[in-house]
Amino acid sequence: MRLSRFPAFRALALMILVLPLVAAAPPVLAQQVPASRDQIKQSFSPVVKAAAPAVVNIYTKRVVKAAASPLLADPFFRRFFGEMLPPGAVQDRVQRSLGSGVIVSPDGTVVTNHHVIKDADEVTVVLSDRREFEAAIVGSDERTDLAVLKIDSGREALPVLTMGDSDAVEVGDLVIAIGNPFGVGQTVTSGIVSALARTNIGITDYRSFIQTDAAINPGNSGGALVDMNGRLVGINSAIYSKDGASHGIGFAIPSALVKSVLTGITQTGKVVRPWLGASGQAVTSELAQAMKLSRPVGVLLNAIAKDGPAAKAGLKMGDVVTLVNGREVDDPEGMRFRLATLAPGADAKVTFLRDGAERSADVRLIAPPEVPARDTAEVGGANPFAGATIANLNPALAEETGMASSSTGVVVLRIKRGSIAHRLQFQPGDIILRINERAVATVAEAKAQLAAKSDLWRVTINRDGETLSLQVGG
């Protein structure tokens, strides 16, 4: 999917003058027509001239292995050759793709989407004035679908787009989307902000998109969403479409999150998101009625980490978080987004409801801790998890893998292709609960259970909140 946004100008309105009432007669409306061409003409040109030079085209290239003949990719032929293809059956192929990006610093720092440069061997940045530069990938964050590139222009000056405040954007505001759709060259589309804080899109883990009706198409990803002050308020990321074409529903990553990711990557080389030490669920109509709330709002906390930031600030299970730093949160994704715009060590003012009364707490956020130690291990031997890499879940690992911060236990990180674990269809993210009816809480316990020989294995796991049981042998 690709996102887009569009700026639009104010519609030209005829001035309506209300004349005084005469006797008992109703008021008479008189219209004043435009007196000159300047009163008729409206244009985005000043905004575009200021912003467009800093929006770049991004071309990527990567070398992949591909079958020399389409027949060799057919499952029927695979039954005979398996993974051992005859000599010359696989050749190197060059795949090319395109996208857009934004220069955000005079030193050549460029922001784009992670999916634009994913797995790229070479990245080329082309400016609107046709200057070309080879780009280095400084860092990339798949969880937010953002990436940072760097180009070296020597002594040549580079245009820069100033970062704006996405929290100041309101529904109905005019915006402009600038990018390179279909590789035809830089284009500009305009529109309005259709919605804010869209969290049910399913594009990234940190979902709180700006929705717009600007025309966005393939190649616009990573381009700029600009307000009427010529400031960057979002990075175009995806569109809602059944056929790949723009239907007026585009999504942009807010600049508040872009700033946070940019700071993390440029200063430390990676993104470290703060840890609240609490998680919960959206308040539904049924929950709101049961809790005697005036309307469904906020996040009902159902897990609080012992000695975590939330616990130390006095938050408890059953509290309903409604605001983070004065910004409303409607669901867990919205709360995670608000926290992700902050850095470890920052203070967050959390407003919540408890027993019908509104309260607030200042929470000192920290980096997700590595407690307990991961103790990563690859399982061998003859058992159901042979070929799987497992680890102890902790807040830092949960953050890296996108799992709930309150998750604990032993998690499957990787599965070796063709292994016993692969054939039994275990998946990364599975949490091992029991092995042969014995509870498993640590990697050490899992290894001890799997080291014991058994003709019949009974395994219970948690997969995406669902408990599954498997019996092998016997």
Short description:
The chain is α+β, with helices and mostly antiparallel strands and 474 residues long.
Topology:
Layout: E1 15-18, E2 29-32, H1 37-40, H2 45-51, E3 55-67, H3 75-81, E4 90-103, E5 109-112, H4 114-117, E6 122-126, E7 132-141, E8 146-151, E9 174-179, E10 187-198, E11 209-212, E12 224-226, E13 232-239, E14 250-254, H5 255-268, E15 278-282, H6 285-290, E16 299-304, H7 309-312, E17 320-324, E18 327-328, H8 332-340, E19 347-354, E20 357-364, E21 377-378, E22 388-392, H9 395-401, E23 410-415, H10 420-423, E24 431-435, E25 438-439, H11 443-451, E26 456-463, E27 466-473
Antiparallel strand pairs: 1-2, 3-4, 3-6, 4-5, 5-8, 6-7, 7-8, 9-10, 9-12, 10-11, 11-14, 12-13, 13-14, 15-16, 16-17, 17-18, 17-19, 19-20, 21-22, 22-23, 23-24, 24-25, 24-26, 26-27
Q: Compute the number of structural domains.
A: 3
CATH topology of the largest domain: Thrombin, subunit H
Name the CATH architecture of the largest domain: Beta Barrel
Low-pLDDT residue spans: 1-30
Average pLDDT, all residues? 83
Helix content: 10-25%
Note the overall shape.
Answer: globular
Strand content: 35-45%
Oligomer: single chain
